[in-house]
Amino acid sequence: MHRNRVKGMMKMADFMTHDLLGEQALAVFPAAAQRAAALHPAVFRWGLQGPDPLFFHKVYAGSPLHKLGNRLHEERTDALFTVFAESVNRLTDESHDIASAYFYGFLCHYALDSTIHPYVYYQEHECIRAMPGENASAIHCQIETDIDCALYDRYKGDHLHLPTAAYQMNDQEIAVVSVILHHLIRCVLRVDVPTSELRPAFAEMLACQRLFYQGGRGLSRPARTVERLLGKGPLLTSHIKTGLPQWDALNESHSPWRNLWNPDVVCTESVIELFELAKDKAAELASSYAAQFDSGWMLNLSYYEPFDNGNYRRQKP
What's a Pfam family this protein contains (predicted)? Predict the structure, then answer.
């Protein structure tokens, strides 16, 4: 498995993996969630990407919101969804529908990250043990890129296609989503980021993904040249999709692995099986929240697993 060195890469399930999960989960979501996604499909799709757009704002200038993206994956998951759900519940009319679509997509992002990350972190840790000089973040990124390519081939049986048109939000949708993200960051992380800084992040992420998915091998060589000139490691090449992985990225052989926060338990699930578990988790959460929104009574659900479940580089919360 080819590995690159990099500093400060994005640690997340990849773009199309989240898109695929949302597509499949939506089919078993409650009617209210399906209605919200049908009314605002681009907003639902951006919800599927969770906090990840924060990684791509002004990425050429060092991605100033990167740390906030990491913190939303690591900190106060209970508070995040409590604040988010209460915001959806308070809004009315079109703003409520937009916020609902974003919320249900965000649930999918959480369900997938928290389910698949233990496997990814385990594979990352094993690579670090075998190649101690390599950068952990780069390895993490490469593993998720490989999973992305293999999953898309498994479910679509076609060349990776980025549905850029499906992610185009109108002005009202961008405004509502940016305000919600601003509110989440302020309430959960106690950091005030102007909505003017958040609004461009979605288009910036999509532009980067277009390069990663459509550039292919033709982009790899010039990208490496740029990386050498900048001297900051392969900030691009770890994300570029160049074909199917040459290792069992989906663990279809059911090799043993462990959640490194609970290393005594041996797991053998494949990524396909984890994907199904994530879909079930998302559907269960969506049903619970849909019932709460319908009744007007909001409950504070407990999230025992953060987005970065199994992250051996920090202590289990």
Answer: Zn_dep_PLPC
- What end-to-end distance do the CA atoms of the chain give, in Å? 31
Domain residue spans of the chain: 15-295
- What's the pLDDT tens digit per position in 297-308? 898 899 999 999
The radius of gyration computed from the CA coordinates of the chain, to the nearest angstrom, equals: 19
| Structure-token match 């959960």, residue found | 188
Which tens digit of pLDDT belongs to each residue from 171-218? 999 999 999 999 999 999 999 999 999 999 999 999 888 887 776 666
